[in-house]
Amino acid sequence: MTGVTAATPPPGLPGSPGLPGSSGFPTVPDSADAVLDGLDPEQRAVATTLHGPVCVLAGAGTGKTRAITHRIAYGVRSGVFQPSTVLAVTFTHRAAGEMRGRLRGLGAGGVQARTFHSAALRQLQYFWPRAVGGEVPRLLDRKIKLISEAAGRCRISLNGHELRDVTGEIEWAKVTQTTPDDYPAAVVKAGKDAPRDPAQTSRIYATYEQLKQDRGAIDFEDVLLLTVGILQDRADIAETVRRQYQHFVVDEYQDVSPLQQRLLQLWLGDRESLCVVGDASQTIYSFTGATPDHLLNFRTLHPNATVVKLVRDYRSTPQVVQLANGLLDQAKGRAAESRLQLISQRPAGPEPEFSEHPDEPTEAAATARRIRQLMTPVEQGGEGVPASEIAVLYRANSQSESYEAAMAEAGVPYQLKGAERFFERPEIRQAGMALRGAARAGSGNDQALVGADGLAAEVGAVLATTGWTPEPPAGSGAARDRWESLAALVRLAEDFQRATPGATLVAFVAELDERANAQHAPTVEGVTLTSLHTAKGLEWDAVFLVGLTDGMLPITHAKTAEQIEEERRLLYVGVTRARLHLTLSWSLARAPGGRASRRPSRFLDGLRPGSGPAGARRKGGAGGVEGGGEGGRRRKPRGPVPCRVCGRTLTEATEMKLRRCVDCPSTMDEALYERLREWRLEQAKELGRPAYAVFTDVTLMAIAESVPGDRAQLSRISGVGAHKLAQFGDDVLALCAGQELPERDGEAAEEAADHPDGETSGK
């Protein structure tokens, strides 16, 4: 797609400047050809290619959802597709709801748009009596409690972090269709760095599966597995499904897991009426089993496929796009080879801002002040950006507390994304009941509606009976959150009234019901605070990417080259959420007065002002593990162990070994850590033992953070006991000093591996 020139943004495209896209009530096109109006040449190519396999490679902000929904609508309106025979699948209820809303607005409301899990669950519930008999097993809301019980039955003690690790491994095994017995071998085959002894995880996994069976329960992964099993074993049922669904569209195809791909193949059978859309550069969910391989291999599996690339970015300014492209220019690996060079279609905007701060509270306060400035009306010297069009994005949810406090202190309304769904909030449920009652009673019979002129006034009058007032309460907190939720309903009523003159309260209640079913929530006025992962698929006028330090992004536990690249892609997703204003910030210490040991994320090298090219990092370690004895003796910590970054008392084994909270940024020498891992792998191969029997990952991280200069310093690191110090100490110290490895005694090394010096098997 090189040579694409700037074009006028198609009318109605979300994110295009100067468009009224806030109402959510577009005019339904009056013909099939009218569905194509406003599409750019590449989007039109997607929409009009209705036969055969189609692969859409769509960069961030290029209108992929617009392209595929218009393709479905054009197919329906032109008579090529029957609405009931089309199944569009995506990965979140929000995305599926948005797709249903758009299709409804295009006159294709009968099309099914669902997540993989919801589509599979409907089929499982429908076919279970016929295929298996009896009641469908109970679906577990959360599996972690049962996994904890399974671990206890295996006499394996897990703390909170370890339990989450094991849960993640079991989920990965299931979506990759790996049985408990096959899990250890699958870990080796996949080159996966398992968080603990695979044999232990295998035992917990097997016990967990038995507990579910005993209690007649299934988990979310089982929904897919059981549906796949039924479709594989029952040709008659598979044929019934294929008669129902004949045309498939898969959004976010880079996030498909092997299990989801298998289900898709069973739905398709030997047909090729499939359209997939994705971007390998936005693959950020590999921990769930997602892989871009299916997208990258699509043309190999479907040689006759039509491939369309969308690179015209209608969302972001040239300045934001330039930064995003520069970020990917440094990427490596297979996904990077297929990266798309975005071309902004918007007018020039402000340059991205880079901001360094002495500590986290100062960074959060500066962010809140800048947001207040953006929100200030233009006539008062500000930018006039609505609070709902501003987001603060961070790597870990634990970072939100500082920003919640800073927003409250600055009087900035905010909302935490990823929390309770809008239509499930208590105040919205209460409002819905009140509106339904008023709609049934009618304006002549409900005292609250007397004197109300127009739909918006009627909605406001009804909500007043629940305690809502036109003026917001002072300050922030729960009362302000409740007010903002109800105010969103009033604004929605205003939009509905403008789009549908003469609209009644009965029609508005029906609209609310449809939106609730589609999870198509109205906009709440408040700055969004959320994680980078949760921000996927969203966009704002102004985005603040905060806490961008090595150890946080990339996060400490990203060790392999591919894991590091996924962290880079996560930052790319964050950058491409911004339409106009983009601020990237970091702090040198966690708390005021703390040691300024942090450094900006390596991903910003060559992009932020004053930084050298990517990879030009200083060598050597920073910081150190405190305490310890003299000589070769290893002294156990006495009393409470404080985090050496934030001072919090540590309670978990992993944190005590690192001498810091797992969420506190690391000062680890990444190059040294990789050398230590390579050395450990060679040792493990020679000894015929798993790598963790030499040193665990946590011990290697502690070594790479402290960079010991002699045996006394090395001995103070938890996990380096007398035996391992004697046999591996020279190697480790040589690696820390950047020297050649000394000659080793193979038999002595094997003896050392038989004495783990109190290390646990696992990270």
By secondary-structure content and strand pairing, the structural class works out as alpha/beta
- CATH homologous superfamily descriptor of the domain at 32-120 and 227-310: P-loop containing nucleotide triphosphate hydrolases
Q: Strand order of the main beta sheet, please?
A: 3-2-6-7-1-8
- The CATH level-2 architecture of the domain at 32-120 and 227-310 is identified as 3-Layer(aba) Sandwich
The average pLDDT is 81
CATH C-level of the domain at 32-120 and 227-310: Alpha Beta
Radius of gyration: 28 Å
DSSP strand count: 18
**CATH fold-type name of the domain at 32-120 and 227-310:** Rossmann fold
Unreliable stretches (pLDDT < 50, length at least 5) are 1-23, 615-639, 745-763
Give the biggest beta sheet.
6 strands, parallel
Domain HRDC: 666-746
Binding site for ATP: 58-65
GO cellular component, one term: DNA helicase complex
Keywords: ATP-binding, Helicase, Hydrolase, Isomerase, Nucleotide-binding
